[in-house]
Amino acid sequence: MINKKVANINEAMHGVTDNMTLMLGGFGLCGIPENAIAHLVKTGVKGLTCISNNAGVDDFGLGLLLHKHQIKKMISSYVGENDEFERQMLSGELDVELVPQGTLVERCRAAQSGFPAFYTPAGFGTEVAEGKETREFNGKMYVLEKAFEADFAFVKAWKGDEAGNLIFKGTARNFNPAMCGAAKITVAEVEELVPAGTLDPNQIHIPGIFIQRIFQGEVYEKRIEQRTVRKKS
Questions:
Q1: What is the pLDDT of residues 185-206, one digit of tens each?
Q2: Family per UniProt (predicted)?
């Protein structure tokens, strides 16, 4: 069985350079690859195009890269929790491509499956469809959307084995599975890394064939983006 385990974060991130296109899993702050993001901040790579549902918050997640101006373009669905993102976008410092959420995940999935493009009704008749091919199917108009082309995908799972098989936990599953195998190299960081063959095959969400590198992450903060509690009765 092929062993996808790498010794450390430096080996896992080998080959990441300026001006690359990166996919980063997560939804809000849930299931984000914290170790990979921290390493990108530390190394100072710049000119990045980042594909992610959102850009974290001002002091965590991809917000850390934004503060250091390491991102030149964001391809996202939701950006409402990051003041620095808003400032850079409105000032023209940051190139932003807003994508309907379903289209965003489907462009990941298309790349994962090897499809160059697909038709979707989302965005027809809006700015999203400008400059894109449209076509009618059964009386309804659709927009042609292209699969993403990314150099690296960074995903975070709860548990994985040395063969690269992954299990996600709860809502941290979100965009992570769709980004596995959707880039030239997929790097998975996990909370618990076990020997190959020890995971229950019926519980595996992503098979190891979609993963090139896997390592056990460290010190996960798992911040809650917006904490909501019930009032005492």
A1: 999 999 999 999 999 999 999 9
A2: Belongs to the 3-oxoacid CoA-transferase subunit A family.
